[in-house]
C-alpha cells in the first residue's frame, strides 16, 4: 500500500477492525518512511451482470428502490427495506461468487420479501418470474396459502 503523503511503496498495519456490518475491514496504517498514519478500507467486490451485458457493482440502494415500488401503499418501513437489502447481499455473498446475473439478484429478493409482505411479494414475483396469465397468479397465491398458518373460521371476517 503506497503512502498517500510521501508515496513510499510500503506501509505497516497498526490496527484492523471490521466495518460496515462486517462486510469491510478498516485498517490503520503507518508509513515507515515519513511516519504518518492513514486509514484504508478493504471490501470484497461483488458485481452484477445486466441483461445488456454491462457489469456494475452490487448496490443495496438499487435493491431498496426496486422493492420499494412493489411495497408502494403497503405497511413496510425504510428500515424493513434496508434489512431486506442486507439479507439479500449476505445471501449472494455467501454463494462465494464475484459476479452474479441481475435476474438471480431478483430471484434472491423473493424469499425475504415473501416473509416481509405477501402482496409486495406477489407484485415483485409477477415481474421476476414472468407471470403471463391469471393461472400464474393463482398458483402463486395457492403456494402462499399452503405455507400460511391455519386460520380458524372464527377469525375470518
UniProtKB/TrEMBL annotation:
A zinc finger (unnamed) spans 3-34. Residues 46-136 form the ATP-cone domain. It comes from Occultella glacieicola. Its cofactor is Zn(2+). HAMAP family: NrdR (MF_00440). Belongs to the NrdR family. Binds 1 zinc ion. Negatively regulates transcription of bacterial ribonucleotide reductase nrd genes and operons by binding to NrdR-boxes. The lineage of its organism: Bacteria, Bacillati, Actinomycetota, Actinomycetes, Micrococcales. Keywords: ATP-binding, DNA-binding, Metal-binding, Nucleotide-binding, Repressor, Transcription, Transcription regulation, Zinc, Zinc-finger. This is Transcriptional repressor NrdR. It comes from the Bacteria.
